[in-house]
Specification:
alpha+beta; two-stranded antiparallel sheet; 27% helix; single chain; Atu2299-like
Length: 204
């Protein structure tokens, strides 16, 4: 693996804390998790982490439950501007730092533990119809969609501040990481954040 489970959990919890503080739902914030997570990987792991957006499908449990992000067309599935998912590709791996929030999208009837999603790109199924086992996944990135979503996010006035907060907060295990952080943003206002988010139990 590129990122150890403990460090993956730390990255998820950091971004989840920032996303929640900013008034967003972590289960609907794939852009934040991908863009901030990629910056952490580039800064702390020195890898060329690339954000991709488009169609995504994940087989998440043994009850034939599949999470599908995208838009179906006659020719198959394609990413749409308002129906999409974001993930990270780095050094032959696909990493989704939002994955521990997947259970929040599945409804109360399914008891699914928060898990890590970090898989080799070579292990992706050929077609989303081939999803048969927990951990199977299918991704179809769209370049113009990725560019549009990145442009939308970086135009957020507070984007640069939040990227720095996430990157400075993270520390690789076994180094101790702060349970809270205080940062001064460009407006001069001090932002106090407490670390939140679930414990990650295993992997897809």
């Amino acid at each position: 693996m590129l990122v150890k489970l403990k460090d993956y959990e730390r990255i998820h919890r950091i971004i989840s804390s920032v996303v929640s503080h900013h008034g967003n739902d972590p289960a609907h914030s794939c852009m934040w998790f991908s863009f901030f997570g990629a910056h952490i990987l580039r800064s702390h792991y020195k890898v060329a982490a690339t954000v991709r957006c488009g169609l995504a499908a994940f087989y998440v449990c043994d009850k034939n439950e599949i999470l599908f992000f995208g838009e179906m067309t006659d020719d198959g599935g394609t990413g749409a501007l308002d129906k999409f998912h974001c993930w990270i590709e780095a050094d032959g791996w696909v990493i989704d730092f939002m994955a521990p929030a997947f259970p929040n999208l599945m409804g109360p009837s399914l008891q699914i533990n928060p898990k890590m999603f970090q898989q080799r790109q070579s292990d992706m199924v050929v077609n989303f119809k081939d999803l048969r086992h927990p951990g199977d996944y299918f991704l179809a990135p769209t370049d113009h969609l990725t560019e549009a979503r990145l442009k939308h996010l970086v135009e957020e006035p507070i984007y640069d501040d939040l990227v720095e907060i996430c990157t400075q907060w993270f520390a690789k295990s076994p180094r101790k990481m702060r349970s809270k952080i205080e940062m001064t943003i460009n407006s001069g206002k001090k932002v106090a954040l407490n670390l939140s988010g679930p414990s990650v139990r295993g992997r897809w």
